[in-house]
Amino acid sequence: MNREFLHKITILGCLFLLITSSSGTDNGFQTPEQYAQIVQEHFANEEWEAGKELLEEGLQKYPNVSDLEWLMGKYWFHEKNYDQSRYHLVKAIDDNYNNVNAKHLLVDVEDITENYSSAICYVNELLEVNPYWRGLWRRKIELYRKQNNDVEADRLLKRINQIYPNDTILRKDYIYSMEVGYQQMKKGGNRKEAIEKLTELIKVSPQNEEYYLDIINLHLQEGNREAALGWSSNGLAAIPGSGALIVKRASILSELARYPEALVFIREQMRRNNSPAIRRMYNDLLMEAARAEKQRDPYVLYGMAYEGGNKNKEALDYLLNTSVTRGYTDDALFYIREAKKQYGNNDKGILYKEYMLYRQMNEDDLAYSTLKKMYEMYPDDYDITLAMSAQHMKKAEKLMELGLYAEALPHVLFVSQKHIDNDMNGAAWEKALSCYINMKRYNEALATLDTITLHFPDYENGTLKRAFILDKMDKTEEALQLYLSAIEQSDEDMRIFYVIGYEELAVPYIKKCMEAGATKKAYEESVKLISLNPSSDLGLRYAINSSGLLGKYDEFEKYTAQGINYYPEEPFYQAKRATVLERDKRYEASLEFLKPILNKYPSNKEIIGAFSQSSEYRALQLTKAKEPEKALAVLDTALLYDSQNKSLKYTKGVVYEANRQADSAYYYQKFYEPSIMEYRSFQRHLSGLRSMMLKNEIALTYLRARYGEEDIITSVATAEYTRKGQKNSYTGRLNYAGRSGSASDSMEAEEQTPGGVGIQVQGEWTHHFSPKWSLTANAAFATKYFPDITADVALRHYLKNDWEIGAHVGYRRVAAYTKRYEWNDEFFAGGTGDNGYLFTGWNESKTNLLTVGGELAKTIEVVRLNTKIDMHFFNSNFYYNAQIGAKYFPANDGKTNINAMASIGSAPETAVLDYALPGSFSHTNTMVGLGGQYMVSPNITIGLMGTWNTYYNQTNTVRGTSPSNQIESISTRYKNLYNIYAQVYISF
Known about the structure:
Layout: H1 2-24, H2 32-44, H3 48-61, H4 66-78, H5 82-95, H6 100-112, H7 116-129, H8 134-146, H9 150-163, H10 168-187, H11 191-204, H12 209-221, H13 225-238, H14 243-255, H15 259-269, H16 276-294, H17 298-307, H18 313-326, H19 329-343, H20 348-360, H21 364-377, H22 382-401, H23 405-416, H24 422-438, H25 442-455, H26 462-472, H27 476-489, H28 492-516, H29 519-532, H30 537-549, H31 553-566, H32 571-583, H33 587-600, H34 605-624, H35 628-641, H36 646-658, H37 662-669, H38 679-693, E1 696-707, E2 713-724, E3 728-739, E4 756-770, E5 773-782, E6 789-798, E7 803-823, E8 837-860, E9 863-874, E10 877-888, E11 897-905, H39 910-914, E12 925-937, E13 940-959, E14 967-987
Antiparallel strand pairs: 1-2, 1-14, 2-3, 3-4, 4-5, 5-6, 6-7, 7-8, 8-9, 9-10, 10-11, 11-12, 12-13, 13-14
Helix pairs in contact: 2-3, 2-4, 3-4, 4-5, 4-6, 5-6, 6-7, 7-8, 8-9, 9-10, 10-11, 11-12, 12-13, 13-14, 14-15, 14-16, 15-16, 17-18, 18-19, 19-20, 20-21, 21-22, 22-23, 22-24, 23-24, 24-25, 25-26, 26-27, 27-28, 28-29, 28-30, 29-30, 30-31, 31-32, 32-33, 32-34, 33-34, 34-35, 34-36, 35-36, ...
């Protein structure tokens, strides 16, 4: 016994330990995302081993999940085990090709392990997702350099710099690349190539003093001192007052023994830069000039000889050439005039020297005039034509800078037609192309572009320019097709540039289509753009908006999900996600989705607008579900963020109206701004609300009834007062009826009731337990005609979507009248009469009438339909009456209506009994009616209703010629009764 007990205890303990141990190792994580989140927190806190242990557990439960494999790769990368890291990162990409984090880390792994080609491949894959990531472009260039592929790196860097000319980082990289290139060329002794590279560098960075000094030194090493002097001038023009350039130019002039020129130059520069070094150099030059003067300058000697009268060719040529070379402008102008006197005004050599002198003097107009004269005289001279072309290019550049493209065009066309220098000719064609484009002469621009691509096959911008021109010619579709063809035929790098160009044209074109109402075309172009660049922000936005307008809701949802995938933090896509939920009428889900986003971006108009719209829809949904308190809470939350939203305020008024809070409804609905077409209807609705706000109402009703075949009129008058509240309404009602007739024997046989007056006093109470339930109870007491006692209780339930159901029970103590006949003793047989019985009065009987019934109603916008059935229990028999009705509210004031109704049954409708009108049981009773009410003002409403009742009628009579010969008879027939109800309601 004890052993068995111990054995059972042991087994239960083992089971307990097994259960607790298994539950203890579960960590409570249910999804891969939970594992990933906790592991990242461990890694962020440098808890690598703890993170790895949890990660291994997650991979056992969820093998090959991309984010878990990426984190394992990240762990091994931290441990510098790159093979293991690569293994897991590749598995991460196999599971999710778009795992950007894994690809970024693979780039680092392949970079460290010197697998540069693989690293470049992963960079290309990342660029497919985000072609605008400039950091990736720089990484790709860096990998090319590590691969020793400087040519490809430089080519890519130059191209990127052209696409992003305002990117300072790319510009620095480009300058650094060229700087390294020219330094290598200089070290290798390739001075000419270094000079070309420096020339290009100076164009890009004209403010760099070091570049000018280097190019000057290279020209000096080449023995070209004049070029060195020219670059010193260019440098000082770009960097006025540069001490290093001032010293350099003065040194060159000193080496050329051009001391006077050097001294004049330094004196001019000392006005800008009077540093001690420059003053010291000036003093040194003065000493050198003084020493040189001792050796007698030939220029001075020739000048003295020429002034002395020896004006031979040798002296004049020397003086002219030297003065021009040394920059002695006054002397040079004098000797040019002297030379023209001796050799004539049209001497080619003299004119060319004059042209060069004017250029040195920066007298561009005089230089051009002289050059033009030479060109007209010697049009086939290569140097003159080349110089003339350079002048035209210079003029064209200045005119284009001023936006005078029409004036610049003849100058560039002159150069393009001469074919003197290939580089200058290409530049001229490009400027001509630019002029035509800016002048909007697009056909000439296309012809020019054809010429450029024909003569310059390596021209890289042909596709971009052609597409640009076609777009300007309103041939955007053709331009986009041109890009598509180029994309299909391009390599990987060029494809990205063409895609960028395609997007730059496609986005404005799509916008233009949207503005023109060509929504279908805009949608098609958006889809094409997204197929080329799935991460195009504007492409996705237009695809979403156009698909929504076209009713393509599946595409709308698809592109919204795609936008959230690429831009998870972008409010636009989050707002559209809310729209997707709204379309499915999941307004509550939309609000739950938007709330955390709204907390993050509390001032974002798109998110606020989406939240407001979802709140409005949700509030209306709750209102239809008869939950106004919840609806108001939803709207109040939305108004915290969007307090000036008039639509929200109006909707809040609608909710208050549904909850019978007319004063609040009126206040908030006033914020609505109706259109011109809506204005009268809206003002009518506000009048209706003002009427609902009035707590007191007096109703006066007059009923006039007439038989169809007899001119007998029956009337009932009603006066009532109602005190209305939000929860309770109280009504006191007084009914008055008068009947023609007498108890004498002069009454007609057809009369069924005695004459007289009847009054009924009634009280009624209506209570709203909640927006979904209400109760109405009334009780009445009468003297005659009306039921002696009346009591009714009705319970009504308001369902969602404007359905109503109701049940009611009622009791009535009704009176029935029969004629009483007695024998006339004065009657004698054989006389003139044939009836000896006289009508002597009425026999009255009291009967209990119990009524049970139900009602169903539905409101569809401005129409309310209802059906009702009453079951009566009378004299131990069962009777029924079924009714249908419809009300149309055309005026939007809640009161004005047109009302139609009909009923049929073995008993009359309850109103016939309540208004003391004739009717009968056990035979078919029918009724049709039509009427309406009109709100004259918020205080007065009038109504008119007509009904036509057809009912079964029977009359009892007694006839006979002797007491023993009594003959009782009952005449039966159907009669028509026409009723008119006139109503006046006074509210205050």
